[in-house]
Each structure stands twice: as structure tokens, then as C-alpha cells.
Amino acid sequence: MLCGPAGVGKGTVLGRVRAQHPEIWLSVSATTRQPRPGEVDGVNYYFMSEREFLDREARGEFLETADVFGLAHYGTPIQPVVEHLEQNVPTVLEIDIQGARRVKERAEELGLDVMTVFIAPPSFEELKRRLIGRGTETAEQQAKRLETAKIELAAESEFDVVIVNEVVEDAAAQLWNIIATEFGL
């Protein structure tokens, strides 16, 4: 599992690793938020209505779900994750703190072994610069994400490994070493 506050560069770091190691399977989450420019249904997320999401949640089809910032629901479909892990395919969930906590609980219930990795910024000011610089949220959403980031940064001790994303290539190399060790590659 890969976690960290919004804007820390989780997707960028993971993208570098996956470019060099395409055998990694990235779990595709479901969400009720609208697609951002360039996002593709079934590739970046499974985009669905709130009703569809809540119906699937009620049927137990998610490994975890979260209501993020009161703006959208997110969830990890359970079946594809279990199938990939059973085949020893390097599997990564890019997930928020709430989701990580729930996945840890569910993994224990299901007898799955999970490694948790927290991507941290070099500083809070750098995180703020990155979040604002990506230009994907309104000023109000940015403020909410930064407040949440303070809470998330305080939770980094809950994770097995913390990687500081100061230089993307270095963070990516660290992440690959963790994945390779975990999956015996």
C-alpha cells in the first residue's frame, strides 16, 4: 500500500517505478468524483454514480471505502486485488490514510500480508507548493487538503516504511526495492 498526503507525488513516484517495472499491477479504485482532464474510466478510476457506489459497498464488493473531504467516495474493489496477490503479481494500492487503515484491518481478516509505505514531503511548505502548483483543485479544496495533510503527516509512524520524496528518482528507487523485496523479485 502506498499512502501520503495529496500533492506529495505518490502518483509521480509510482509512475516512475511502473515505467521501469511494468509487471507491477496498480489497483484501480472506484470513485464518485468527476474525471479530471485525460483520465479514462477503468484505467485511472472506475467512475460511477453515488448510487452505484453505495450499492456495491452494501454488497461488500470493496476492500475499503472512504468519503474523502465530503466531496467524493473512493473504494478499492476487493476481487482483483486478491486475484493478483494469489498469483504473486507485485500489487500496489495507492490509497489515502483512511483507506490504508481499513485495508490493514480487512487484510488481517482475509489472511493477506500487506506492506505499508508512506510517501512524505521534504517539508510542509514544499507540499503546499506542489499541491497548489498542480492546479487541479479550487482554493477551498486546496485548503481542506492541506488541513488534512497535517493530520496525515502526523500518522506516518503507523506505516512500515516512510520514503521522503525530495528527488523523484531516489524515492522511486526506494519504492522499487521495497516491492522487489516484498514479492521476492
Largest beta sheet: strand ordering: 4-3-6-5
What's the SSE pattern?
Answer: EHEEEHEEHEHEHHEH
Q: Class of the largest domain, according to the CATH hierarchy?
A: Alpha Beta
Structural class: alpha/beta
How many DSSP H or I helices?
A: 7
Unreliable segments of 5+ consecutive residues: none
Q: Round the Cα radius of gyration to an integer and report it.
A: 16 Å
- End-to-end CA span: 17 Å
Strands, total number? 9
Main sheet: strands, sense, barrel: 4 strands, mixed
Number of domains: 2
Shape: globular
How would you name the CATH homologous superfamily of the largest domain?
P-loop containing nucleotide triphosphate hydrolases
CATH topology of the largest domain: Rossmann fold
In what range is the share of β-strand residues?
A: 15-25%
Level of helix content?
40-55%
- What's the pLDDT, averaged over the residues? 90
CATH architecture of the largest domain: 3-Layer(aba) Sandwich
GO molecular function, one term: GMP kinase activity
InterPro entries: GK/Ca_channel_bsu (IPR008145), Guanylate_kin-like_dom (IPR008144), Guanylate_kinase (IPR017665), Guanylate_kinase_CS (IPR020590), P-loop_NTPase (IPR027417)
Function: Essential for recycling GMP and indirectly, cGMP.
Enzyme class: transferase
